[in-house]
């Protein structure tokens, strides 16, 4: 059976499907020793596919949940030689990569896999996976502030979707707030709090869909259980548009 080239690369654990598309159009991919830049190209099991002259091989899909610590890059490599999330999982033999991203100074739940299809679906805007963050922010957050977050604030000329909020505690200098969103714009949580006048001082992602950090400390990780993988796949094929 013939499959699209970017899908084959993603299945091999080389990169996510969107990253594979960029590799193809940039001329990094060869099929049977010929450079291919067309995204619609289909290949069969008999074709030899190379990325940067390295033949790809089909790997069994693996799925990991990491408690990302602060001060670690959400990437496979870093040109500034900073520690990456993949460095933490260096004992994993497969070529895995993070699903989505967390900022350098943000901790919390991060998925890593070599399943390009699942990564593509989980990070696609159409599939609204809820993520809960706990933020320490400057100042005393009021009910009106929380209402703004719940109804949506305008960032870069576009209003955020409705969110769920909970004020955990507050003092004269700062507040701890739980915020649940299903969008995934860059720096969205920080930008939302900035918009209401409460800059983030500390941020952690506590849940991703039904998954949480129970039993893990920062820097620790575990394999997803088979039933968790199946539930994630179900989550990724269910269009939950609100």
Automatic annotation (TrEMBL):
Domain of life of the organism encoding this protein: Bacteria
UniProt-listed NCBIfam families: pseudouridine synthase
Keywords of the record: Isomerase, RNA-binding
Name recorded for this polypeptide: Pseudouridine synthase
Phylogenetic classification of the source organism: Bacteria, Bacillati, Bacillota, Bacilli, Lactobacillales
Pfam families given in the database record: PseudoU_synth_2, S4
Domain named RNA-binding S4: residues: 3-66
Protein family (similarity comment): Belongs to the pseudouridine synthase RsuA family.
PROSITE patterns noted in UniProt: PSI_RSU, S4
EC assignment: 5.4.99.-
Root EC class: isomerase
InterPro entries linked to this entry: PsdUridine_s_RsuA/RluB/E/F_cat, PsdUridine_synth_cat_dom_sf, PsdUridine_synth_RsuA/RluA, PsdUridine_synth_RsuA/RluB/E/F, PsdUridine_synth_RsuA/RluB_CS, RsuA_PseudoU_synthase, S4_RNA-bd, S4_RNA-bd_sf
């Amino acid at each position: 059976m013939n499959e699209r080239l970017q899908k084959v690369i993603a299945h091999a654990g080389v990169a996510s499907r969107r990253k594979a598309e960029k590799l193809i159009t940039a001329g990094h991919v060869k099929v049977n020793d010929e450079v291919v830049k067309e995204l619609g190209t289909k290949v069969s099991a008999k074709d030899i596919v190379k990325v940067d002259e390295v033949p790809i091989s089909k790997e069994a899909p693996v799925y990991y949940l990491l408690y990302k610590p602060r001060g670690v890059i959400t990437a496979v490599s870093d040109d500034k030689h900073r520690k990456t999330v993949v460095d933490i999982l260096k004992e994993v033999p497969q070529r895995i990569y993070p699903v989505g991203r967390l900022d350098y100074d943000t901790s919390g739940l991060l998925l890593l896999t070599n399943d390009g299809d699942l990564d593509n679906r989980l990070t696609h805007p159409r599939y609204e996976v809820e993520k809960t963050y706990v933020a320490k922010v400057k100042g005393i957050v009021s009910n009106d502030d929380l209402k703004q977050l719940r109804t949506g604030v305008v960032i870069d000329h576009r209003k955020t979707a409705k969110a769920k909020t909970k004020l955990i505690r507050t003092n004269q200098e700062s507040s701890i707030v739980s915020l649940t969103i299903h969008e995934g714009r860059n720096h969205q949580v920080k930008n939302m709090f900035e918009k209401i006048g409460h800059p983030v001082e500390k941020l952690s992602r506590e849940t991703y869909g039904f998954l949480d950090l129970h039993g893990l400390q920062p820097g620790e990780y575990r394999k997803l259980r088979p039933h968790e993988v199946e539930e994630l796949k179900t989550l990724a094929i269910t269009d939950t548009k609100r």
